[in-house]
TrEMBL record:
One of its GO terms (cellular component) is cytosol. This is 3-isopropylmalate dehydrogenase. GO terms for molecular function: 3-isopropylmalate dehydrogenase activity; magnesium ion binding; NAD binding. Keywords: Amino-acid biosynthesis, Branched-chain amino acid biosynthesis, Cytoplasm, Leucine biosynthesis, Magnesium, Manganese, Metal-binding, NAD, Oxidoreductase. The record marks 141, 192 as: Important for catalysis. It comes from the Bacteria. Binds 1 Mg(2+) or Mn(2+) ion per subunit. The gene is leuB. The lineage of its organism: Bacteria, Pseudomonadati, Pseudomonadota, Gammaproteobacteria, Pseudomonadales. It comes from Marinobacter litoralis.
Length: 357
């Protein structure tokens, strides 16, 4: 059975880190006889430069046909002044919505080897293992109407719409409850139900679902408190489920608890478990092209892809073990560098993971 993986390197450090993950994928493909075939396509700023659109039809077509997608990152200052509909981010958002990748899984795991890289005290973060389940195709990111309009007073007004249907809430809720069942059986739903009606409904639906998952303990938290609790006592959380925008913000915060956003993968899945996998960090234009970016989040995203979309647990575990091994060896890219570490480039880190495999 041949399965296809679409590689979307994107912009900034995207091509450098995806290149390392690609080598790792080729290696496990051979070693575990996975029968994977690979294709590449343009997205984001790279696609704007070549084809004047952040999501070319050919890319979307290849994405629809692929069994899984590995994406680097999109965006950069070069395209920041373009109108909203033409910006690189629209490529990413278009893939998410066209493929209905509504479930975004963002684990924040502290690698014991990197405990000192966190800005929080080691006792606060040691052993940290949180999963943020972010709704990815709805909420204020996609709500209509949206835009900037001219008021009668002559002033302009910007507006967006924060909305969720019951079915959208229910399907992301189920993903989160099921994830909690597989883990520590605790689910915290984050909302702003003291102010926003849409999240009053969110809370109601989460409560409704509770009876289907009697083994999971459900709690609710307002988003401002959740932001505070994440830095105060992050280990109280197991799985967090929240809407698109709150999830965007809280997942960056959770990532940073672990010391480096350069270590964290993510998966965006639809109801057929087709998925797009990407590192949580962005395109980091400030260090693009210098060969110093950390490829590990992308490599771990490739492992996640093998596990969730391709059912290749052994190959996934082998990659994860190889990553752990290079960290044990003291190899560090600049973002996770600490005393006693050996500083390596993007390519050296990728090569080290290959040899560890
Ligand atoms: C993310 C990013 C994206 C988002 C941007 C690049 C559109 O911040 O994946 O978290 O806001 O979802
Ligand atoms: Mg974000």
């Amino acid at each position: 059975m041949s399965r296809s993986v679409l590689l979307l390197p994107g912009d900034g450090i995207g091509p450098e880190i995806v290149a390392e993950a690609e080598k790792v994928l080729h290696k496990v493909n051979e070693k575990f006889s996975l029968g994977l075939s690979f294709e590449s396509a343009l997205v984001g700023g790279a696609a704007i430069d070549a084809e004047d659109t952040p999501l070319p039809a050919d890319t979307l077509d290849k994405a629809r046909k692929a069994d899984a997608i590995l994406l680097g990152a999109v965006g950069g200052p070069k395209w920041d002044s373009l109108p909203m509909a033409k910006r690189p981010e629209k490529g990413l958002l278009g893939l998410r919505s066209n493929l209905e990748l509504f479930a975004n899984l963002r684990p924040a795991i502290l690698y014991p080897q990197l405990a000192s890289a966190s800005s929080l005290k080691p006792e606060v973060v040691s052993g940290l293992d949180i999963l943020i389940v972010r709704e990815l195709t709805g909420g204020i990111y996609f709500g209509q109407p949206r835009g900037v309009r001219q008021l009668e007073s002559g002033e302009r007004q910007g507006y967006n719409t924060y909305q969720y249907t019951e079915s959208e809430i229910r399907r992301i809720g189920r993903v989160a409850f099921e994830a909690a069942q597989q883990r520590g059986k605790k689910l915290c739903s984050v909302d702003k139900a003291n102010v926003l009606e849409v999240t009053v409904l969110w809370r109601e639906i989460m409560e409704e679902l509770k009876s289907e998952y009697p083994d999971v303990e459900l709690s609710h938290m307002y988003v401002d408190n959740a932001a505070m609790q994440l830095v105060k006592a992050p280990k109280q959380f197991d799985v967090i489920v929240t809407g698109n925008m709150f999830g965007d913000i809280l997942s960056d915060e959770a990532a940073m608890l672990t010391g480096s956003i350069g270590m964290l993968p993510s998966a965006s899945l639809n109801s057929e478990k087709q998925g797009m996998y990407e590192p949580c960090h962005g395109s980091a234009p400030d260090i693009a092209g210098q060969g110093v970016a950390n490829p590990l989040a992308t490599i771990i995203s490739a492992a996640m892809m093998l596990r969730y979309s391709l059912n290749e647990d052994d190959a996934a575990a082998a990659i994860e073990a190889a990553v752990s091994k290079v960290l044990d060896q003291g190899l560090r890219t600049a973002d996770i560098m600490s005393e006693g570490g050996k500083k390596v480039s993007t390519r050296e880190m990728g090569e080290a993971v290959l040899s560890a495999l």
